[in-house]
Design a protein that fits this description.
Largest sheet: 5 strands, mixed
Order of helices and strands: HEEEEEEEHHHEEEHHEHEHHHHHHHHHH
Strand content: 15-25%
Helix content: 40-55%
Distance between the termini: 47 Å
Number of strands: 12
Number of domains: 3
Radius of gyration: 30 Å
Shape: elongated
Number of helices: 17
Oligomer: single chain
């Protein structure tokens, strides 16, 4: 095969292969590449100014995509220019995005493989160290993030994710309209969210935030009221229902200890049945719950109250939503369910944030979906030390909607 045929197969615009070497024993292919005659413009890597004269040059060896079974290495002549502003600088080569010994399309292939598989699987595929694959994936995501257009923040979501026994929690700020995370911060204090508003948003963008979906964590609420005065705080539906599930579980435990002897077996082992929605239960599970309700009236009342509370977010008018909540609280008057009495007081204390859902509709499930993606990435990567890398991975996963490859054992 001639050198011009190698040039067409290599496909580097502006460069040609003038020498090649094939080793069949080690299955390697080495290509020597230099600029074509018409490609005489040298671009300074510092300021982007173009030059025609070179200061000097040297050879740089980078790994490219394999050609079949052969591992391909490209040796390219890289020039240096004498820039009046930057001094002596290396030229900018589009095929070499960084100082690492890898071509751009090789790093793109590694980064694309990391989107749907773990780093260790990609490292075995390309026969590299896992740390090298992580560094390549980080550069790939940084180039992707630098070229994309970011939407303005109008509806934001704030929540925390458990990050491990050392860091404990990280604060996740997300864009509810695009469904992607925007910023990660260590801990879940008010100062953490203050740092986001101070460093990531200007005053004009802070005033443009219309709504914020948060849980009932007081430090987050204080920070949003301080930095975004035009923002309406909406309390997350799933966190409120989580408190309702905890109330049902407290009733179940109280009934277990109140009943004696064989009646305890009726309530025992029914926790996950009571925490599951009725529409998600099979016919067999529904029959088990009906048997429990026939023998224990308090547990049945607690389950029905929890199920009926979810209807609160189906209303579009503030008055109708408030009327339904008042009727729901009125049902607790003679039920003697202390956990639900505490839940009712909590709902009344946060009534304005609940009613704000009728005033400004937001996508309530986005925050939990982003948290699920972060936890999936955290499990696949077996932990992350670099929060910026984790943020880029979560953003890429949210934008491309990729799924991880799950390897199942053969039966």
């Amino acid at each position: 095969m001639r050198d011009n045929e190698f040039t067409r197969i290599l496909g580097w615009p502006g460069y040609r292969v003038f020498r090649h070497e094939i080793d069949e024993t080690t299955k390697t292919l080495r290509l020597w590449v230099r600029r074509k005659r018409g490609n005489c413009k040298l671009i300074c890597s510092g300021c982007g100014r173009k030059f025609t004269d070179a200061h000097d040059y040297n050879e740089r060896e980078v790994r490219d995509l394999p050609w079949g079974e052969y591992r391909t290495t490209v040796i390219i002549e890289v020039y240096r220019v004498c820039c009046p502003e930057c001094g002596v600088k290396v030229e900018r080569v589009p095929q070499l995005p960084s100082k690492a010994p890898f071509s751009k399309r090789f790093e793109d292939a590694v980064g694309l493989a990391c989107e749907s598989a773990s780093v260790r699987q990609v490292a075995r595929q390309f026969r590299m160290a896992a740390s090298t694959v992580r560094a390549i994936d980080l550069r790939y995501l940084q180039r992707w993030s630098a070229t994309r257009c970011k939407e303005p923040l109008k509806q934001m979501g704030v929540d925390e994710v458990y990050f491990g026994k050392h860091t404990k929690f990280i604060t996740v700020v997300s864009n509810l309209e695009t469904g992607e995370p925007l910023w990660f911060g260590q801990d879940r204090k008010q100062e953490t969210l203050d740092e986001f508003f101070r460093t990531q948003l200007r005053k004009r963008r802070r005033n443009g935030i219309e709504a914020a979906c948060v849980d009932m964590w007081l430090p987050f609420t204080k920070s949003i009221k301080q930095w975004a005065p035009n923002c309406r705080i909406i309390y997350d539906k799933f966190h409120i229902l989580q408190h309702a599930n905890e109330a049902v579980d407290e009733v179940r435990r109280a009934e277990f200890f109140r009943k004696g002897g064989p009646m305890r077996d009726v309530v025992k082992g029914k926790r996950w049945l009571l925490l599951t929605r009725w529409v998600n239960l099979s016919n067999q599970k529904r029959q088990q719950l009906n048997q429990l309700f026939a023998l224990n009236r308090r547990v049945m009342k607690a389950y029905l109250l929890k199920e009926s509370l979810e209807r609160l977010w189906t209303y579009y008018y503030e008055g109708a939503m408030l009327n339904y909540l008042q009727n729901w609280i009125a049902q607790l008057r003679w039920q003697r369910l202390e956990p639900f009495q505490k839940l009712a007081h909590m709902l009344l204390d946060h009534l304005d944030g609940i009613l704000n859902y009728c005033r400004t509709k937001v996508r309530l499930g986005v925050v939990e979906a982003i948290n699920g993606n972060i936890k999936t990435l955290f499990r696949r990567g077996r932990g992350y030390k670099n929060l910026a890398y984790l943020l880029l991975k979560a953003q890429r996963m949210a934008v491309t909607k990729t799924e991880f490859i799950v390897l199942k054992k053969a039966a």
